[in-house]
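Sharing in case it's useful to others searching the archive later.

Someone asked me privately for the predicted structure of Exopolysaccharide Pel transporter PelG, so I'm posting the question and my answer publicly. Question first, with the sequence:
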Amino acid sequence: MAGIGFELKKLFHRRGLMAMLRAYGYAGVICAGPMLLGVLLQFGVLIVSSWWQVGRPDRDLLVCMITYTLLASLVLTSFLSMPVTRFLADMLFDHDEKMILPSFWGSTGIMLVVGAVLYTVFLLFSGATLMQGALCLWLFLEMIVNWNAMSYLTAIKDYKSILYSFVAAVLVAFVTSCVLLALACPPVESLLFAVVLGYGVMLVWDVLLLHRYFPQSRKHPWLFLQWVDQFLPLALTGLFTTIGLFAHLVITWCGPLGIKVKGLFYGAPYYDVPAMLAFLTILITTVNFVVSVEVNFYPTYRSYYSLLNDGGTVKDITVAENEMLAVLNRELHYTALKQLLVTAAVISLEKTVLNALPLGFNDAMHGYFRVLCVGYALYAVGNTVMLILLYFTDYSGALTASALFAGSTVVFTVIGQFFTTSLFGFGFLMGASLFAIYATFRLASYTDNLPYRVLGQQPIVAQTKRGRFTELGILLEHGEQRVDQSLHRSGHARSSDKANIAETDVIIGRNRKS
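And my answer, the predicted structure tokens:
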């Protein structure tokens, strides 16, 4: 799991400002590529719109369409994200790389079919025009592939190519939007098409990287569904974390700050823009977890479990455990401290910086931004601790933490809609606080008696769970076999027909000669 961190750590060892910026650029794109691209394109759209004096209603509609599509694709893919990542890790550990690419297309295919049906139904009743609906659906399907591809791209060490795909997507979207607006094309459709084209470039580039790195095979594309049954808590953890992260936006759209932009498209521009900007402040923790926490913690973690597996002495195991927990506590402390310093610096400078940007910030938006910066900082710390719980296979603890995060955020945000709008954002802040506090206490209690957790709580005999997702995989496998058989039969029949026709032609030719 920490392999990507070890590779990135080499980049951070190089001296010089440009080397440091390049390293953070690689790490940021790899850890949060599509989401970072989405936020940048959102603000790029606002800036380009202000340059070409696009009307406020068109800008609000465009931001709503992109935001809806972003969040819908995130929620859909979040359920399979962690089980697919676990499947990928297991296949790499077993050196069974031939199973990886089929699982990518299998998981992508399922999400594309389910997502296309659900999002098409929404778009039919959303009030969008035919062209707008087609572009939104196109963008939605692209994002599904991009989100899923990021789980697999972490195994690729060609970070320069991944960064190039990100930069190319931004440049293509920017140039396309300027060209189309200069040609006086409809602004909403033009900018939406530019975003679609940008994500399309990233999709094609990343898929080509996957095909270049992993061997192509048609082996069992539905095998990963067994991992969904086996690690269902992981799937629910990913889903609940995503809901907790973005539910406050959707609830606010339905509250006093919300406006009806068009049809079913609602938004709260005075809240959405600060929220998207505040989200960027947690990038430092995301990168730090990969290049610092995992890299420094993983060797001690591996040493401890190696002693348990290979018959180490009690004394050696105890020493390794103490060393591992000391490193873990130190790295988590540094991570929280770095995020605190970044958040404090951003809050101190935000008024000067944001007022200089053409985003129309007012006093209320500055207040939302400050509150949400603190909320996202607490979420980042809580999410880091939750990932460590997953390291120790405390799936129930991680699931409880994520469910608490999602539930409390939803409840507190709904309650907050009945109070003054100046308090908006505190619902998410309170939910993130509970998330961080519970995850921290859970990790402390879990590691207090770690030998029992590792040895005593584990099943004596390996258990294989066969549930609905495994049954779905078997059903899809049988269906694929039937299709292949029917195609083979039809191909064989066509070959026989061609042979019969050729034979008939030969006979006719002989008769003519005679």
